[in-house]
Amino acid sequence: MLNFPKKTIIFLKKHLLKQEKEVEKQLKGVKEDDPVISPALAESSEPGTDSYIADSHTKTLVLEKQLKDAKTGIGVALAKIKSGTYGKCENCSKYIEVGRLMIMPTAQYCISCSQKPLKRR
Ligand SMILES: [Zn+2]
């Protein structure tokens, strides 16, 4: 059972879906900017810039991972909304503060749990 007003959930869901689209768009852009994947970009760079290509490829991978993680987080949050478990802290099972979810709809921990180091599983 959720302790959030339905309006809040609808708002957050819309926000999450918008974010998901944005992340997908960015993921696509990231791949196009990768000189390893995009030969045209690699050719246009200065000769002897192998390290530049490798460097920006690494950056691309890091960014891609961040975006994929964000997408996963959004997917998890949306699945939780669907199943009615959204907004529960993964650590203490208490409800996450609405204000926190408004700023970070993918938050999985309440404010107090996110501030103390979590027990490693
Ligand atoms: Zn908690």
Describe this structure in words.
- This protein has 121 residues and is mainly alpha-helical.
- It has helices spanning 6-32, 39-44, 50-83, 98-103, 111-115.
- Helix 1 packs antiparallel against helix 3.
- Residues 89, 91-92, 94, 109-110, 112-113 line the site of zinc ion (ZN).
Structural domain tally: 1
The major β-sheet equals:
none
* Low-pLDDT segments: none
CATH homology group? DksA, coiled-coil domain
Q: What structural class do you assign from the helix and strand content? A: mainly alpha
- Rg value: 19 Å
Reported CATH architecture: Up-down Bundle
CATH fold label: Four Helix Bundle (Hemerythrin (Met), subunit A)
So what's the CATH class?
Mainly Alpha
Distance between the termini: 27 Å
**Tally of contiguous helical segments:** 5
Bound molecules: zinc ion
Helix content: 55-70%
Shape: elongated
The overall strand count is 0
Topology:
Elements: H1 6-32, H2 39-44, H3 50-83, H4 98-103, H5 111-115
Helix pairs in contact: 1-3
The chain binds zinc ion.
Question: How is this structure best summarized?
Answer:
With about 120 residues, the protein is mainly α. The chain has helices at about 5-30, 40-45, 50-85, 100-105, 110-115.
